[in-house]
Amino acid sequence: MKLANNLFFYPEKGMFDCNTYVITDGPGVIMDPGNPAFLSIKVDEMRGDGIGPGDIGFIANTHLHGDHVAANETFKELSGARIALHPVQKKHYNAVVVDAARFFGMKPLEFTEDFMLDEGTWTVGETVLEMIPAPGHSPDCVCYYNRPDRVLICGDVVFMQSTGRVDLPGGSRDDMLKSIDELSKLDVEFLLPGHMDIVDGAEHVAMNFEFVRRNVLPWL
Prior knowledge:
The chain is of the alpha/beta class. It has a single domain, classed as Ribonuclease Z/Hydroxyacylglutathione hydrolase-like (Metallo-beta-lactamase, Chain A, 4-Layer Sandwich), CATH 3.60.15. It has helices spanning 39-48, 66-69, 72-79, 87-91, 93-103, 173-183, 202-215, and strands at 2-4, 7-11, 19-23, 28-31, 56-60, 82-85, 115-116, 121-124, 127-133, 142-146, 151-155, 158-159, 162-163, 190-193, 199-200. A seven-stranded mixed beta sheet has the order 1-2-3-4-5-6-7. The protein is globular. It starts with a strand and ends in a 5-residue tail after the last helix.
């Protein structure tokens, strides 16, 4: 589903309902491919929007929990895209990928990056993504902010009227409070979380941050 300009949204039709976002800007980026069991449905929906796997050159993640990264290698094999990793994600790889999986009694869903991103910004075609570390849900969370289009891909940091949990390995309530405070200062038209519905419209985004601040953060 097209959201704006070169931005597309594909909610997962499966158990963990990971939201996947695609930026089509020579070559494209797929953000959080999700679960490989449901990847074929997303790929069919992408094709319906005129986007083939071969149009995607990069795979990136908002954080490295299994429900977001499990399909990284599968989509790489399908498309030939390269897996990108932010330095803060590399630093906390073991804590987030290995320890978090063991927390749930699951086998770690590991993958190998093809290249490291620089800290700061990532330019893909004509799209400039500001990469904002936002720990709290996990120590490796990174939000991607397209300032001209006022788009914030925020992963599991903040949802519609909720936040990500902070009780997993590496999670921190104090870090979450700071991250949400900083993100709420951005000019955002599209708030694109890792699960559940998107928040569309600057006024609705501001109201959502205020709701989270008043009704969710005190209970973390």
